Amino acid sequence: MLFATAVYAENAPETAGHGTEQAGQEKKEGEFDPAELIMEHILDAHEFHFFTLGESEISIPLPVIVYSKERGLAAFSYGNFHHGHEAYNGYKSEEGKIVAVDAEGKIDEAVTLYDFSLTRNVVQMFLALTLLVVLMINVANKYKKGGAKTAPSGFQNAVEPVITFVRDEVAKPNLGHAYNKYMPYLLTVFFFILINNIVGLIPGTANVTGNIAFTVVLGVISFFVIVFSTNKHFWGHIFNPPVPFLVKFILVPVEFIGIFTKPFALIVRLFANMVAGHIIITCFVMLIFIFGAMSQVAGWGFSPVSVAFTVFIYLIEILVAFIQAFIFTNLTAVFIGQSREGAHDDAHH
Amino acid sequence: MELLTPGLGLLVWTLVAFLLVFFILKKFAWKPILETLKERETGIAEAIASAEKIKTEMAALKNENEALLTQAREERAVLIKEAKETANKMVSEAKEKARAEYDRIVADAQSAITQQKNAALTDVKNQVGSLVIEVAEKVLRKELANKAEQEAYIKGLAEVVNMN
Q1: B28: nearest CB among A122, A137, A212
Q2: A 287-346 near B (Cβ less than 8 A)
Q3: From CA B17, how far away is CA A230, in angstroms rounded?
Q4: DSSP 3-state assignment of B5?
Q5: Most buried residue, A45, A61, A187, B97, by most Cβ within 10 Å?
Q6: Angle at CA A335, nearest 5°, toward A334 and A337?
Q7: What is chain A's percent helix, strand, coil content, to nearest 5?
Q8: A218 touches chain B (CB under 8 A)
Q9: Is B46 touching A (CB cutoff 8 A)?
């Protein structure tokens, strides 16, 4: 992700310099807008945009896949839009969003478009997950080959404590004897979030875990897992809590909403934490160019401070990548544990 | 706001990716890893338990050994004591026997001495008797011959007897 911002390091002092020379004549094109740049960095896109060299933008266009009832399925490269300047095949990119256009190039409101494009978040997620699967299967093969008698070696040593941590600190305390059943799910959630968090920290990459769609999917999955783990006792507690009759009218809706707020909190927590981290880092980098826009000396002068802060936040973000993966997994395990409580003899001991 | 509206494409792809990764990892990664870990842990637990068992067994064995040793020591002590007692007894018995022999020998000697003394005495008495008779015979013979001489002779004889 820093890659994307490093681009502006090359660009911005120039534009800032131009800005002062031309006294605001080219405000629209060359103007340095930190908020827009940050949002561009945080949000999804149809291309991996690295930097703009003069007139040409250095980026990898990604496949666009759109579906509409009216026009059916269409798949083509985003490069065909020439960075959103041209229409292609009846479609056009409006500020990064694919819209259908009619013959004259105007937006066709009649067509409802479903965008299944492999955006940079999707592609990066696939790459990260391929990495995860390859790593884990390698590790698993080592276990298969070595058996229980040989000591773990290499990457096994890195993965094993994490797996035993998830098992002993997350699954066992919350799920009791049934932990074995949930281990694959919890491990997958943990590593799914972790690998995407970490890959998202590589400069130049997209912000996958800080995208609400990503966290919504994980939250909804954990919602279903929680709901399918429930027992009679859990529902009894929700619809018939052991309180005076009139209090039930207040408590029952609160408890019922609680079923949904739990995964919702998971969704928002992961999203907000990751997006905040990315925003802070880009903000610190942007500060250089904000100062640089005032005067070049201030920009150069502030850059060490900014870099120091960036490095500091960056290190914290690495920590956060682990913490958020752990928190999501742990809370999911806690909620599953709550929904299983009561009926089983393992719950109240 | 675009930041907070989930994109349909990413939603679908994330769901697909998650389910795929879940099933792949569940089958090919988590299952062998968790199984091996469990196996290893039970193996370690068993090893520790058996080590503990062996330790207690060793301790029991050691105790047994010690008990045997103390028993042996006690036996040895008893044996030595008995041997000493026997030796002492033998020595004292020998001493007693020797003393008894000595006493017997002394008693024998004494009795022999007394016997011989008595025999000698009897012999002396017999000789004195015969002497007396002899003297008396001679006196009687002399008396018959000379009265004066007879008296002087008796006197002489009496003197000899007195001197004896």
Answers
A1: A137
A2: none
A3: 26
A4: coil
A5: A187
A6: 65
A7: 65, 10, 25
A8: yes
A9: no
pTM of the model: 0.73
Task: Provide the phi-psi class of A147: left if phi over 0, else alpha when psi is between -120 and 50, else beta.
Answer: left
ipTM reported for the complex, 2 dp: 0.83
Q: Kindly write down the DSSP assignment for every residue of A73-119, as one continuous string.
A: EEEEEGGGGTTTTS-BTTEEEETTEEEEB-TTS-B-TTPPPEE----
**Residues in Cβ contact with B150 at an 8 Å cutoff, skipping those fewer than 6 apart:** B139, B142, B143, B144
Alpha-carbon distance of A126 to B13, in angstroms, equals 9
> Model confidence at B111, in pLDDT bands (50, 70, 90)?
very high
Q: Phi, psi (5° rounding) for residue A50?
A: -95, -60
Q: Domain extents for chain A?
A: 120-340
Residues of chain A with pLDDT under 50: 1-29, 345-349
How far is residue A22 from each of residues A11, A37, A253, A258, measured CA to CA in Å? 16, 22, 63, 58
A244 touches chain B (CB under 8 A): no
